[in-house]
Amino acid sequence: MARTDHPPAAARATALPRVSAAGRSVAPGTRTEVIVASSPATTVLGPGGPGHEQVVLCQDRSSGLRAIVALHSTALGPGLGGTRFHPYPSEDAALADVLDLSRGMSYKNALAGLDHGGGKAVIIGDPRRDKTEALLRAYGRFVQSLGGRYVTACDVGTYVEDMDVVARETRFVTGRSEHSGGAGDSSVLTAYGVLQGLRASAERAWGSASLAGRTVGVAGVGKVGRHLVGHLVAEGARAVVTDVDAGAVQRVLAAHPGVEVVPDAAALVRADLDAYAPCALGGALTDEVVEVLRARVVCGGANNQLAHPGVADALAERGVLYAPDFVVNAGGVIQVADEVDGPVPERARERAGRIFATTQRVFAVAQEHATTPVAAAEHLAEERMAGVARLRDVWLPRG
Ligand SMILES: NC(=O)c1ccc[n+]([C@@H]2O[C@H](COP(=O)([O-])OP(=O)(O)OC[C@H]3O[C@@H](n4cnc5c(N)ncnc54)[C@H](O)[C@@H]3O)[C@@H](O)[C@H]2O)c1
User: Fold this and answer.
1) Can you give the pTM of this predicted structure?
2) How many CB atoms neighbour CB 234 within 10 A?
3) Which residues are CB-contacts of 156 (< 8 A; sequence separation ≥ 6)?
4) Per the residue annotation, which of 24, 86, 108, 120 is the catalytic one?
5) Average of pLDDT values for 238-245?
6) CB of 265 sitting under 6 A from ligand 1
7) 3-class SS at 228?
8) 137: number of Cβ within 10 Å
9) CATH numbers and ranges of domains, the chain
10) What whole-number distance in Å separates Cα of residue 174 and Cα of residue 343?
11) Coil, helix or strand for 336?
């Protein structure tokens, strides 16, 4: 039976006014500017669609670099987002991913209260085979050539040591190692932020932010998932985990022997969970998963959890409270943004702690406007982007 404190789809109004996705008045049909920065060969990408400010293809034949940088919005400041190093099957697939990811960064950064817009980069290739010093440094030079419109960091397939190499060619890089003056691994703060999202979700679902006695399923116990399990155990929750990598599971069990393991994510979503935390790759929430999911709350660290936008409605219709990924997994970007000014760990942790209040606000706006938390969060982000972008109308002297 459907559990409800969300209204059914028919009752959900489109009460929230839409602001331009990039936070400024982009006319309908405005096309993405595609700039080709290439050395020495040039490949031109087609227009990426409306809403993005700039998309840059970076190609350097001698190092084998093929990368795409997408800037969705610089309404709040320079685009900030990580570099994904992945063996995409085609340039089109890479382009689709970077457009999606950079748009997500605009919303994430806006809701995290950062003075950064949304940007992201993808490097096309197998990081285990293709990652070389020359390639990373070539990439760093392309980032530098954008003059600060884009600030890069780590993502799937890139690590703090890689950003140290990129930093030899550009100053527009964050997410570096501690011994290079950076703040180190951002997954620690990401997991802390997800915990705050879970606490706010628990408060909305069950009337108390305590997770003690709750059963939380964690799919993917890599960097973020593993730290999240640590928090859950410390909070007195029961963790049930799964991972395709047996080594990752073993590391969690070594640290927390009481954790229960299930064979795969399909078994996890069918388990008797209070909350489900997707912490592996994107697309974990499909129509099929929504059908069988037994958890009352979904809140996890993975990016782009919804397989398609309609899944947000499907979750609400089944009475599942979904804490949008881009709200609750902002701890990492909060850390790397903090590093730009010189890292202060306590300041970054305090900012990540605000994810609790932001998640509460998202749920409250969703309820007030009878819409989904995703629509509410997007609205709040767009409102901030538009409001700050308008400040550019206030004239300032040069210099
Ligand atoms: N690291 C960060 O600071 C950060 C910040 C924001 C968002 N994220 C997102 O969180 C997610 C996890 O990031 P991470 O840094 O922990 O990556 P990671 O690679 O360290 O961990 C991912 C884990 O998921 C496992 N996995 C992959 N497919 C799986 C499947 N089908 N079922 C179960 N497990 C599976 C992998 O084996 C791995 O252990 C990603 O979506 C990432 O984009 C990470």
Assistant:
1) 0.88
2) 11
3) 84, 85, 86, 281
4) 120
5) 98
6) yes
7) helix
8) 18
9) 33-103+115-180 (3.40.50.10860), 187-384 (3.40.50.720)
10) 10
11) helix
Ligand 1 atom nearest the C-alpha of 329 is 6
Q: What is the mean pLDDT of the chain?
A: 90
CA neighbours within 13 Å on the CB side: how many for 187?
Answer: 23
Q: Is residue 131 annotated as a catalytic residue, yes or no? A: no
How far CA 114 is from CA of 123, 173, 334, in Å, comes to 25, 16, 7
10 Å CB burial of residue 212 (0-12, 13-18, 19+) is exposed
- Is residue 223 part of an annotated ligand binding site? yes
CA–CA separation, 370 vs 382, rounded Å?
A: 18
User: CA 181, CA 169: separation in Å to the nearest integer?
Assistant: 16
- The per-residue pLDDT for 50 is 55
CA atoms within 13 A on the CB side of 392: 11
**What pLDDT band is residue 101 in, cutting at 50, 70 and 90?**
very high
Q: Among the atoms of ligand 1, which is closest to the Cα of residue 282?
A: 41
Residue type, 246: A
CA 13 / ligand 1 centre spacing (Å): 34
Q: Would you say 150 and 172 are in contact if contact means Cβ atoms under 8 Å apart?
A: yes
Q: Lowest mean pLDDT: which of 35-44, 301-310, 336-345?
A: 35-44
pLDDT recorded at residue 281: 85
Q: Read off the pLDDT of each residue in 93-97 and give the average, rounded to a whole number.
A: 95
